[in-house]
């Protein structure tokens, strides 16, 4: 059992292997392990609620993927 598995049920609780992947690839990998996940994508440093929801997985991103443009 990996260090990302919960002691009680063996369900995965974190996905260090998705660091560096695109958001789409990360979502796909997480949903493979946890099909009922409610995935929320947020900028790094976002203020989030402190409530625990076992179905929620937060992905924090900070990379600008395209040149910002006026218009």
TrEMBL record:
For this UniProt record, the keywords arranged alphabetically read as follows: Protease inhibitor, Serine protease inhibitor
**Which family is annotated?**
Belongs to the protease inhibitor I13 (potato type I serine protease inhibitor) family.
Superkingdom of the source? Eukaryota
What is the name of this protein? MPI
Which Pfam families does the UniProt entry name for this protein?
Answer: potato_inhibit
Q: Which GO terms describe its molecular function?
A: serine-type endopeptidase inhibitor activity
Which residues belong to the signal peptide in this entry?
none
The cross-references to PANTHER family, in alphabetical order and at most eight, read:
PROTEIN, PUTATIVE, EXPRESSED-RELATED, SUBTILISIN-CHYMOTRYPSIN INHIBITOR WSCI
């Amino acid at each position: 059992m990996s260090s990302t598995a919960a002691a009680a049920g063996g369900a995965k609780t974190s996905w260090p292997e998705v660091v560096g992947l695109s958001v789409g690839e990360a979502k796909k990998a997480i949903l493979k392990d946890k099909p009922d996940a409610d995935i929320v994508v947020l900028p790094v440093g976002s203020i989030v609620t402190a409530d625990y929801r076992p179905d929620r997985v937060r992905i924090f991103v900070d990379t600008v993927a395209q040149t910002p443009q006026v218009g």
